[in-house]
Specification:
Helix content: 40-55%
Strand content: 5-15%
Bound molecules: adenosine-3'-5'-diphosphate
Shape: globular
Structural class: alpha/beta
Distance between the termini: 36 Å
Largest sheet: 5 strands, parallel
Number of helices: 13
Strand order of the largest sheet: 4-5-3-6-7
Length: 283
């Protein structure tokens, strides 16, 4: 096991999320109007964050992840004067208790786990903050066991799935955003109570396209204050392919079968499992 990651309550975390910080999360003082942007890594977090930042007069400030940096970073979040949009990859259990008590709005982003696994495999390879996997097959085994950063995809999604129908929780699907961007973003803005007119919406769609975001990342110097995922502030590592169904280029038929069996077993009582199946043509 690499020194880049450490285990906290059975789950792997990056070194930047120290044990001390993770122990202190419950001291975080949520505000009623906070918006949490929650996801398992590689589900489209940067994309949704960019959409929110592109909404004119949204009156929000996108912060760094709550699990990023040392304890002083947690304190610094108190000084944000505007309505905060706080990204995080924490599971429901680890999310600060005040977020639950104050019923802060939660946007949970979810993506087909086979594409998520492929995306995370590349992130492991390219990101100096993560240990380089030997092969795709070896990585996939770790992914299925939940022996990757932020733990098992299944545990993460299922931990939030229980709250899917709560009034303060909205699930956004990566695949739906790809299929019908305007429809899914309108769902989000009406959930957040922010009005966006049609011409603003077209501008947002243009500014947040994969190609636009990728070319902007190349031009930008990496700004540590623009960290959305605790695993890196280097946006050049984020925009790889941006498509649905890239898993087909990596999974062998046997790997697909094993994965699908586990998916069916773990997700059998989950609405999210059913929705994902509808978005993704699995056969
Ligand atoms: P791929 O590695 O499959 O390309 P996160 O932001 O949660 O780290 O997720 C990263 C994934 O979202 C990457 O997937 C990335 O390419 C994809 N992504 C980022 N911006 C996107 C956009 N504007 N449109 C579509 N996909 C995007």
């Amino acid at each position: 096991q690499s020194s880049l990651l450490h285990r906290y309550k059975g789950v792997l975390f990056p070194a930047v999320s120290s044990e001390e910080l993770l122990d202190s999360l419950d001291s975080f003082d949520a505000r009623e109007d906070d918006i949490f942007l929650v996801s398992y890594p590689k589900s489209g977090t940067h994309w949704v964050a960019e959409v929110i930042e592109n909404i004119p007069d949204a009156g929000v400030t996108l912060t760094y992840p709550i699990e990023w940096g040392d304890i002083s970073k947690l304190e610094e979040l108190k000084t944000v004067p505007k309505r905060r949009v706080i990204p995080t990859h924490l599971s429901y259990e680890m999310t600060p208790v005040t977020v639950k008590q104050k019923k802060c709005k939660i946007v949970y982003i979810v993506r087909d786990p086979k594409d998520t696994a492929v995306s995370l495999f590349h992130y492991y390879r390219d990101n100096p903050n993560l240990p380089s996997p030997d092969t795709w097959a070896a990585f996939l085994e770790l992914f299925l066991k939940g022996d990757v950063v932020y733990g098992s995809w299944f545990d993460h999604v299922l931990s939030w799935d229980k709250y899917k129908n709560d009034k303060n929780v909205l699930f956004l699907f990566y695949e739906e955003m790809k299929q019908d961007f305007v429809k899914s973003i309108k769902k989000m803005t009406s959930f957040l109570g922010i009005h966006v007119n049609d011409s603003e919406m077209s501008r947002i769609a243009r500014n947040t396209s994969f190609s636009e975001m990728k070319s902007n990342a190349v031009k930008e110097n990496c700004d540590p204050n623009h960290t959305i995922c605790a695993l890196t502030s280097d946006r050049n590592l984020v925009f790889r392919k941006g498509v649905v169904g890239d898993w087909i280029n990596y999974f062998t038929p046997k790997q697909k079968r094993v994965f699908d069996e586990l998916f069916t077993e773990k997700m059998k009582h989950s609405d999210v499992g059913r929705c994902l199946k509808e978005y993704v043509n699995t056969d």
